[in-house]
Amino acid sequence: MALNLVPLHFVKNLSSLFIEINIINVRIKEESITNAMASNSVLDVWGWLVSLPPASQWNLDTQCFCIYRSEPSQPSLNLRVIRNIHGHNPHVIFSLTAYFNSHITLWSSNSLHIKEIIDKSFDSKTMQLLLCGIIAGVLKYESYKKSSISVPGMLIEKDCKDIFNLALLTLALLVCIYEAPQDLRFRSIEELSLRLYRRNSQESMKQLVRILGSNLEEQWMRSVNLAITNWIMESRSSNLSLSLPSPFFAYSFSTVGLWKVQLYCPITAMISNNQGNSTHDSRLNFSLNYQQLEGVIQFTYKVIFREYWIDVVVKVDNIRCDVNQLVSEKLMSKEGYGSEEKHFPSRILLQLAPTVQTDVISVSVSKSSDNPIHEVGVEKGVEGSFEPPGSYLGLKVSASETVTLAIKQWKFEQSVHGDSAVLNWFLHDGVNGREVFSTKPPKMAIFRPRSWFRNRYSSAYRPSTRQGGVIFAGDEYGESVWWKICRGGKGKRMDWEICGKVWLTYWPNKHRTFYSETRMLEFKELLHINLET
């Protein structure tokens, strides 16, 4: 019987392979590493943490979860859990680390005491404390507001896996922007931002901001958008090819009689009408870009049942748009021209309609246009006086003529497109009535201190609030829009879609420059009405 001989070179190669396997096994024994960063996988750190055995049963003092690694030989971003169960104060510490031959700590939590659960897996209380630490880690990067963090325990007892994963992903992105070594930064930021701003993360973000409450929500968004702005500005200055998705966040909710949409977007991420997104003046560039659009859209509605149809009546309750700075006033004055050189709202467009229109009979608006005030007054006067005796002339006469022109700066229009109601607010130049969002300021007017757009935040005739925002309330823009729905829709839930655009314009305020630009943000949200009595 012939023998099957194995070639000698194959045996040598096999021996080398066994040696390499042993080396790999030694490395694996140093830490338990879970790699979860396939390109399309779901980042489930929550699931990994709650599946860990009790800390007393760990073979090693450290457990590790890989959040990002582009290639096996490249640096990785990891979440490490380090236990210390010796002594009278057993605890664990969570940290985000960059790993390439050794670990570099980028962020670390406070010590979490685990005496009561040393023989149990992580419970809801521990996860709540960790979530609070992660939220505090994100808010630490907000430039000038500090707040204590408190997350209601009743909400944590529910399945908050997606909220936890999103919060950790946000912290990982900010840590990479500010702290990560250069070899890890670019690719990790690109990957993490794609995960953070993909569509299925939006619902988790809505749940998170509801837990935070309105004050912490604003700080959270400013902290995140400040980091994104820093990264965008750095990428542009370094001529890096940036492929981040738009870091724009909006959410909506429907309750009895009220619809609300909330918007946040850094100015740097808005679409510019200028080919070059910045001016050559670095200080003006800083003032213009380190700002954030914050918007609120509120409608009130009521359902009226008629004999032959159903009326759905929608009214404007409050439209608010503000441009708020992302850095402190001190830094804004040092690096820029202060907080008063910034964009201002110049146009708002809202389109509202049912998503399914088979039950819609008609739609009616209250008026086509709210025409601006246009008054022309001519005032003539003659003054006369007698001079004392001895003067050359005993009588003096003077004549004057005054022409007054008043134009309402914000014009409101309603129109109908199919079964959609279209609401339009336009800001007009207070001198010649031109639409601001589509025009440039007259160059000679830049040097006139009394032009309406100069000193616009302190002038008595300013077209906005003192902070530079606008508010359209129901008492001024409260005309209703009516949809007639056939009676067959009774008892149904109707979904409505609100599509909108917001334009922000910069014209010089106190700083003398010929630079001007307009940026635009577009959004779409879903709302609903229950057609019930």
Structure description:
This protein is of the alpha+beta class and 533 residues long. 32% of the residues are buried. The N terminus is likely disordered. A hairpin with a 2-residue loop joins strand 17 and strand 18. The radius of gyration is 31 Å and the shape is globular. The chain has two domains: 224 residues, no CATH class; 266 residues. Strands 7, 8, 10, 11, 13, 19 and 20 form a seven-stranded antiparallel β-sheet that branches. Strands 9-22-21-12-18-17-14 form a seven-stranded antiparallel β-sheet, with no helix packed on it. Strands 1, 2, 3, 4, 5 and 6 form a six-stranded mixed β-sheet that branches. 25% of the residues lie in helices and 35% in strands.
Strand composition percent: 35-45%
What is the SS-derived class?
alpha+beta
Uncertain regions spanning at least 5 consecutive residues = 1-40
Straight-line N-to-C gap: 92 Å
Q: Radius of gyration over alpha carbons? A: 31 Å
* Proportion in helices: 25-40%
**What is the count of β-strands?**
22
User: Mean of residue pLDDT?
Assistant: 80
Number of domains: 2
Largest sheet: 7 strands, antiparallel
